[in-house]
Amino acid sequence: MSDLDAEDLKIITLARSTRARAGAAEGAAVRDETGRTYAAGPVELPSLRLSALQVAVAMAVSSGAQDLEAAAVVTDSDAPDIAAVRDLGPKAPVLVAAPDGSLRTVLRD
C-alpha cells in the first residue's frame, strides 16, 4: 500500500477497525469533499439489509456531504457493490482491501 497517500491509508484503517469491532464480513469508510470521514459496517435486520459501503454513504449524505473524494471497503468479496458510492461520488476511487489491510484493487469510474 506504499503508493497510497496518508488519507487513503486512513480510510482503509477505519474500514478495517469497524469490520473487526463489529465482527462483520466487511467494513467501509468514505471521505467527503470536505475531508470528513464516515466508517460503517453492514446492517442486517429482518426489514433492512445494507452493505457497509451503503451505510457509510448514507451517513455522509445525512451529514450534508455533496460529493465523495474516496471510499474504502475491507472485504473478502471480489465484487463489492459500489452503486451508492457512484451515486454520490461518481469519480471517487474505491479502494478494495483484504482483511489484513492490503490493497487488492482500486475501482475507478
The count of helical stretches stands at: 3
CATH superfamily: Cytidine Deaminase, domain 2
> What sequence of helices (H) and strands (E) makes up the elements?
HEEEEHEHEE
The average pLDDT score comes to: 95
Radius of gyration: 12 Å
Q: What is the distance, rounded to the nearest whole angstrom, between the alpha carbons of the first and last residues?
A: 21 Å
Q: Could you name the CATH topology?
A: Cytidine Deaminase, domain 2
Overall tally of domains: 1
How much of the residues is beta strand, in percent?
A: 25-35%
Helix content: 25-40%
The strands making up the biggest β-sheet line up spatially as 2-1-5-6-7
Overall CATH architecture? 3-Layer(aba) Sandwich
The general outline is globular
Number of beta strands: 7
Specify the CATH class.
Alpha Beta
Oligomerization state: single chain
Q: What is the SS-derived class?
A: alpha+beta
Unreliable spans are none
Characterize the main sheet: 5 strands, mixed
Which characteristics define this entry?
five-stranded mixed sheet, alpha+beta, 109 residues, 3 helices
Q: How does this structure look, described?
A:
It is a single chain. The protein is built from three helices and seven strands; from the N terminus they run αββββαβαββ. The chain is globular. It has 109 residues and is of the alpha+beta class. The longest helix has 17 residues, at 6-22. It has a single domain (6-107), classed as Cytidine Deaminase, domain 2, CATH 3.40.140.10. The protein has a five-stranded mixed β-sheet with strand order 2-1-5-6-7, with helices on both faces. Strands 3-4 form a two-stranded antiparallel ribbon. The chain has helices spanning 6-22, 52-62, 83-88; strands at 27-32, 37-40, 43-45, 48-50, 68-74, 94-97, 103-107.
